[in-house]
Amino acid sequence: MTTSEPASTPAPPAPQRSKGFVIGRVAGAPVIVTRSWFLAAFVLTILFVPNVQNLAPGLGAGAYLVAFVFVLLLFGSVFLHEAAHALVARARGQNVTELAVTLWGGHTAYTGGLGRPLDGFLVAVVGPLTNLALAAGFWFAYQASPVLNVPTLLLFAGAASNAFVGAFNLLPGLPLDGGQILESVVWAVTGKRTTGTVVAGWAGRVVAVGVLLWALVVPFLRGATPDITNVLLSALIGAFLWAGAGAAIANGRRREAVDGLTAAGLAGPAVLVPLGSTVADALDAQAAAAGGGTPSHYVVVVGHGDVPIAVIDGGAVTAVPESARGVTLVDAVAVPFVPGSAVHPELAGTDLLTQLAQRSGGARLVPVVDDGRVTGVLDLADVARAIRAT
C-alpha cells in the first residue's frame, strides 16, 4: 500500500482518476475498486482454499466461500489502511483525490505538497499502524475463541495477514510506507526533501532485491528447495518495488530541478508605459528598450505608483492601422492582469508553482514585481515548458 503526491503544476488539470467502481467517499475523495482487484480476489481465493481445506476438511465446496470471505476481510483491512492515510493527509492540509483498491493492495492519492517532514511521516506511518492494530485485535479475538472452527480460522487469518501487511509496509524503501517514513527522517536531518527521496528510493531497490533473495536463499538455508510459486510471486513483487523505487528517484531528481526554477529566470523583460499612453507611445518605448534590435520586451501598462494593470497584446496591436496608433489608447489593446497574481522574482520551485496555481486565475501572463517595481512578465506556457524539460 502506498501514498502518492502528484507534482503541482501552474494550472493543474483535474487529477486523473483510477478506472473502476466508486463505492463511497472518505475524506471527500472517492473510494474506487479497480477492475484489477477482481483478478486479485480470484487468485487469492484459489490460493487460500487449500489452507481452508487442511484446517477444516469437512467443508467441501464451502471452502471456496470461506476463502472468499477471507479475501474480503483482507481487502477490508486494505481499505482501512488507505482510509487512515486519507484522513491524516486531509488533516495535514492535503487535498485527497482518491482511495483505490487495486491488484497490489491499494493507494491513496493527494495533492497540496507536503510542507514539512512531519507531514510525510504522519501520513505514511498511520497506514501500517492501522494494520498492526487490526492484527492485535484479531489475535486477541482468536485467543479468546474456545474452539477451532471456521470463524476462528478467519480470525487467525485476519491477524496473520494484517501483521504481514503492516510489517511489510514498514520496510524502509519507497514506494512502501516505510520508504516515505525514511524519506521524512532524511529530509528532517538534511533539510532537503530531494535527498530523502533519493535515499529512500535506493533503499527501495535494496528491498526489492531482498524480497527475491528471501524466496531463493531462505529455503536453501533450511535445507529445502525454493518453491517455484513463492519465487515467481517474490519476483513479481520485487519488480513492482523496483519500478516504484526507480520512479521515486526520478521524481526526486525532477523535484530538485523544479526547485531551481525561479520567476526571475523564467520571466521575460518588460518596459513600462503609464495608463493613458497611446499605442504609438508603447511601440516607441518597446523599440527604445530593444536598442535597435528585435523588440522582445513585454509592454506593461502601469497606474499610479507603477502598479501593473495590464500587458499589451501584440496581436491586437498589429490590428491597429498605423494611422490610428497615435490616437488609440493602450487600454484598447491591453489584457488586464488578474488582481493579486504578481509574483516575486526570487519565488522558486514548488512555492512558485503553488502561487501560480492559486493566484493566476487562469491567465497566461502574470507580472513579476520586486518591492513595487515591475521587473518582468512571466508566461505560464514558458513555466510549463521548463517543467517538462526537467
Automatic annotation (TrEMBL):
InterPro entries assigned to the protein according to its UniProt record, in alphabetical order: CBS_dom_sf, Peptidase_M50
Peptidase M50 domain span: 151-202
Record has Membrane as a keyword: yes
Co-factor(s): Zn(2+)
Membrane topology field: Multi-pass membrane protein
Pfam families tied to this protein: Peptidase_M50 (PF02163)
Location relative to the cell: Membrane
GO biological process, one term: proteolysis
GO molecular function annotation: peptidase activity
Family membership noted in the UniProt record: Belongs to the peptidase M50B family.
Protein name: Site-2 protease family protein
Organism in which the protein naturally occurs: Promicromonospora alba
